[in-house]
Amino acid sequence: MKMKIAFLSNEQQLPELQGDNIAGSRKHLLKVDYYSMEEKHLPKLDCTVYDVIVIYPKGEAASCGEIISQVKMKEKYTAFFNGQTWVFDIRDIFFFESYYRKTSVVIESGKIRIRAKLDEEEKRLPKEQFIRINRHNIVNMQYVRTVKGETIVMQNGEVLFINDARRKKFEKRYLEYLEINFMLL
């Protein structure tokens, strides 16, 4: 499935944006549309669901290629349990937990047991999004709601605890994550 991106701009910038060379190995995974911000063109935008909408109302703009290079493509995570294969969008995973040699993937709808060792799964996950916080949990920093001392509250309401030995690494990586994803105020 292609990722859909829409660029909205004023009439003067539109030809320049359309002329951008969108190259790279991910070009075949993208569908890019360009729209003028004039009211007569905006209804076209309502007819399509986009993964990303970039708006350039006036002034200087970064090139479309630069913006697209920063867009995170949908990554898949595959796991196995009891002869069944599970495929998740990596962005849907809240965290991993492992207790008593049983590993689970926690998503919005609940927990799904998988056949895996947490150490091995940690190596498969994108380092810029996931971090190990203790011997039992790897969290997706996208779903961290609050951090207070040694406690992390996830968006699904679950409370996890940061190991003292991992706290400084977590704090550093989490701040970097927030800065990169434009969440730091």
List keywords for this structure.
37% strand; three-stranded parallel sheet; alpha+beta; five-stranded antiparallel sheet; elongated; 185 residues; single chain; 13 strands
Describe what this molecule looks like in 3D.
This protein has 185 residues and is an alpha+beta fold. It is built from five helices and 13 strands. The strands form four sheets. It has a five-stranded antiparallel beta sheet with strand order 8-7-6-10-9, with no helix packed on it. The longest helix is centred in the C-terminal third of the chain and has 14 residues, at 167-180. The chain is elongated and about 60 Å long. The two termini are 34 Å apart. The mean pLDDT is 79.
- Helix count, DSSP H or I runs of 4 or more residues: 5
Mean pLDDT: 79
Portion in strands: 35-45%
User: Alpha-carbon distance between the termini?
Assistant: 34 Å
Q: Give, in spatial order, the strands making up the sheet with the most strands.
A: 8-7-6-10-9
Output the radius of gyration.
20 Å
Order of helices and strands: EHEHEHEEEEEHEEEEEH
Class based on secondary structure composition and strand pairing: alpha+beta
Largest sheet: 5 strands, antiparallel
How many DSSP E strands?
Answer: 13
Helical residues, percent? 10-25%
Residue windows where pLDDT falls under 50 for at least 5 positions:
none
User: Which descriptor suits the 3D outline?
Assistant: elongated
